[in-house]
Amino acid sequence: MVNKTGQCLCGAVNFSAENMSDSISICHCKMCQRWAGSAFKCISAPTDKLTVSGAENIGVFKSSDWAERAHCTKCGSALWYRVTNGPYVGGTSLAIGLLDDTDGLAVRREFYVDYKNSADVLPDDREQMTEAEVMAMFAPDNGED
Asked: 16 burial class (0-12, 13-18, 19+ CB within 10 angstroms)?
């Protein structure tokens, strides 16, 4: 079990979670793809061990008979998926991209793999760029030829 902190893109919603799983789950269902813009990568935390600040900036959408999804109303970041009915109540699946640190976490489960989108399969020969390389691409022209 691990403890983690995180926030949305604009910082209006912050959280800390205790006793989280160290397992990343990925859901490829069409609902998650539309909500997250791709597969939803998440880590589970006990809801009663999740402390959230900025609650006034959280929008909640009842996405099915058994679950809800939350987002930041300021920046739109997907925050979590939470089961509200049935045997899995009590956990909150937090979007992995919100975490300040992902050390010690590993992908251990995928759901709806029959809906996996081709963009989620990474070819070995893909171009990969570091932060420095990307920043150099967008650096303002310094006037030198």
From this structure: middle
Collapsing DSSP to helix, strand or coil, 135 comes out as: helix
Q: How many helices (H) and strands (E) does the chain have?
A: 2, 10
- CA 124/CA 101 separation, integer angstroms: 25
Residue 143: its pLDDT value, please? 52
Neighbours of 51 (CB within 10 A): 11
Q: What is the CA radius of gyration of the chain?
A: 17
Task: Report the C-alpha gap between 49 and 140 in whole angstroms.
Answer: 45
**Predicted local confidence at residue 145, as pLDDT:** 53
Domain 2-137 bears CATH identifier 1.10.3470.10: no
pLDDT for position 142? 46
Hey, how many other C-beta atoms are within 10 angstroms of the C-beta on 93?
23
Q: Which residue has the tokens 């006793």?
A: 19
* CB distance 64 to 29 below 8 Å: no
Question: Considering the entire predicted model, what is its pTM?
Answer: 0.86
Residue of higher predicted confidence among 100 and 117? 100
